[in-house]
């Protein structure tokens, strides 16, 4: 193995802003390989592709849904972020399939703990994987940049500013964000991830994104969105009514809750939130009648 200096910059690694690269480039999956395998449900015929933008426009096997955009060293350093996302998705998918929108069993109360810091970095990584490959439509006609600080945050070389970072839905009237992981069984493995960027400055700057995982939306801001300004909750703001860096997310049915705790290294996290599910009539569900409430029909993301 060839030794390289700590200052080495691999030209194909988007995380090379302060050097520290290895000499080998590696294939980085646009969305974590472990997540794709989870949702393919061991189907060898499963294929994945981007539906919009620049990227993988034709169906490929999960192992080929990637781009050479990170060196091996930086790719490996981000494994804990992938692990946190996989823990989150595995918990929700297992319970969603068990419940099947009322046709199955909700079961006993459960809780898990995952790293909020690693999960926040996974959301950032998903956004950067697409921004760095000029995937988004706005990037096809002009040069569009994102904050250089994003790489330091991704690699845990800097603390997140108090007004930046992850947020979750807390206003159910906000149809730009989703918190509906307990879909019908037929819908659980469809459109389970997505990424839509925040675009500013005459379409020349990306300030984060809304990232979907397991039918739950997360806002990720690389700027101060002005939460203390009354205009923050205007209808045109897609992250209006959100909670920043939540302590937990829970889903409750008839007093029984499935909860995901986020552990944060710094004690400046927000409150948690519990979403209440409406009881589903099993007889209706067995006849094919959709359960009441909002169904999963959101616009397509990449």
Automatic annotation (TrEMBL):
<protein>
    <submittedName>
        <fullName>Uncharacterized protein</fullName>
    </submittedName>
</protein>
């Amino acid at each position: 193995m060839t030794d390289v200096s700590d200052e080495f910059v691999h030209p194909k690694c988007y995380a090379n802003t302060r050097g520290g690269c290895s000499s080998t480039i590696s294939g980085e999956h646009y969305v974590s390989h472990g997540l794709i395998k989870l949702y393919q449900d061991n189907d060898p015929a499963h294929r994945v592709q981007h539906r919009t933008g620049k990227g993988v426009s034709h169906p490929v096997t999960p192992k080929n849904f990637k781009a050479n955009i990170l060196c091996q060293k930086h790719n490996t350093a981000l494994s804990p972020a992938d692990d946190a996302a996989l823990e989150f998705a595995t918990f929700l998918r297992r319970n969603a399939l068990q419940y099947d929108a009322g046709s199955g069993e909700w079961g006993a109360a459960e809780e898990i703990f995952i790293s909020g810091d690693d999960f926040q970095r996974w959301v950032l990584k998903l956004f950067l994987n697409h921004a760095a490959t000029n995937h988004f439509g706005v990037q096809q006609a002009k040069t569009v940049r994102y904050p250089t600080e994003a790489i330091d945050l991704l690699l845990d070389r800097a603390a997140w500013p108090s007004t930046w970072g992850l947020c979750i839905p807390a206003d159910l009237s906000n149809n730009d964000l989703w918190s509906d992981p307990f879909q019908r069984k037929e819908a659980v493995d469809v459109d389970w991830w997505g990424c839509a960027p925040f675009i500013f400055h005459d379409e020349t700057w990306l300030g984060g994104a809304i990232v979907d995982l397991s039918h739950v939306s997360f806002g990720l801001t690389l700027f101060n969105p002005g939460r203390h300004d009354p205009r923050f909750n205007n209808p045109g703001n897609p992250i209006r009514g959100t909670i920043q860096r939540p302590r937990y997310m829970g889903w409750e049915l008839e007093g029984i809750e499935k909860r995901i705790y986020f552990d944060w290294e710094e004690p400046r996290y927000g409150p948690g939130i519990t979403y209440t599910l409406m009881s589903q009539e099993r007889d209706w569900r067995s006849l094919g009648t959709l359960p009441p409430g909002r169904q999963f029909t959101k616009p397509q993301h990449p």
